[in-house]
Amino acid sequence: MADTPPPPPPTDPQVLRYLEHARVEKRLAARTLTLYALDLDKLARFAAAVQVPLLQLGSAHIRRFVAQMHSGGRSGRGIALILSGWRGFFAWAGRQGLISHNPVQDVRAPRAPKPLPKALGVDDAVRLAEYDHSGADPWLEARDAAMVELLYGCGLRVGELVGLDAAPHADSRRQGRGWVDLEAGEAHVFGKGSKRRSVPVGAAAMAALRAWLALRAAPFGGDASPRLDAALFVGRRGVRLTAQSIWLRLRQRSQQAGLTTPVHPHMLRHSFASHLLQSSGDLRAVQELLGHANITTTQVYTRLDFQHLAKVYDAAHPRARRKPGGE
């Protein structure tokens, strides 16, 4: 295949002077000079279209050109590279006394949109939540199943899960710890910035929690054992699990369940939000459930209308409406 012919050289005399300066004094590579030439030729064509001499362009013109490139499909990163070349040209022109102000100086490329956080499909999320490792240690199995149900069923952060106590204590609030109220079916957690929130706990998660609490203290001689921490989720030594331990256990469990994607705790939080929004369309409700201070943080998932919080959770979330042992 023949090489692509080089682009025609720019014709503006000041652009030619700048490119020669970049070649001789800045010693830029040939490929870089070619890209600069292409970008400056683009700028010259923009200027011709608005009938303004190249060196008389203002910031408003540059922003208009940026908007045109962005609407034409150019990425924010690509526009940033083009602006960098233009900025260098006008900085050189300023040093030459050709202009009094660099019109590109304060112009920035559009920000790239935040990618949608990775979430499991509904089938995979439910498959993980319902996974039963029959050959495993019943104590570990009950604990890990309850952790998955709370992460996916309540959208908790891993730090919030780690901070849960088995029962409310006088110092829980003071030390930034949460707990689950089994009677009310609510989890009280302390999120970012020590902000407290309450989230509903679905039937499947409640069943998993009760199964875990029935076994939790057994290896230590009972709930009053000095060897047992106040934490809801503890390890073999009775000490509160760390976030890293939960990451490792969840990754292992997702592999055992046959999921092709290694699952981490925040993926289940993303799955919780995505699946709730897919079913309900209530962005404000999901904002409350996730504990986001600003709704723009929640908008990374989608842009949808608002509905009622409790109605959304009870009616829409896959684990809230599945009864343990039911069809």
From TrEMBL:
GO biological process, one term: DNA transposition
Cellular component aspect of the GO annotation: cytoplasm
Residue stretches making up the Tyr recombinase domain: 115-314
InterPro entries xref list: CB, DNA_brk_join_enz, Integrase-like_cat_sf, Integrase_catalytic, Integrase_recombinase_N, Integrase_SAM-like_N, Tyrosine_recombinase_XerC/XerD, Tyrosine_recombinase_XerCD
Family named by the database record: Belongs to the 'phage' integrase family. XerC subfamily.
HAMAP family, sorted: Recomb_XerC_XerD
Domain Core-binding (CB) intervals: 9-94
GO molecular function annotation: DNA binding; tyrosine-based site-specific recombinase activity
Active site: 157, 192, 266, 269, 292, 301
Record organism: Acidovorax delafieldii 2AN
Localization annotation: Cytoplasm
Keywords: Cell cycle, Cell division, Chromosome partition, Cytoplasm, DNA integration, DNA recombination, DNA-binding
Subunit structure, as described in the record: Forms a cyclic heterotetrameric complex composed of two molecules of XerC and two molecules of XerD.
Function in brief: Site-specific tyrosine recombinase, which acts by catalyzing the cutting and rejoining of the recombining DNA molecules. The XerC-XerD complex is essential to convert dimers of the bacterial chromosome into monomers to permit their segregation at cell division. It also contributes to the segregational stability of plasmids.
Name the UniProt record assigns to this protein: Tyrosine recombinase XerC
Keyword Cytoplasm: yes
PROSITE patterns: CB, TYR_RECOMBINASE
Cross-referenced PANTHER family: PHAGE INTEGRASE-RELATED (PTHR30349), TYROSINE RECOMBINASE XERC (PTHR30349:SF81)
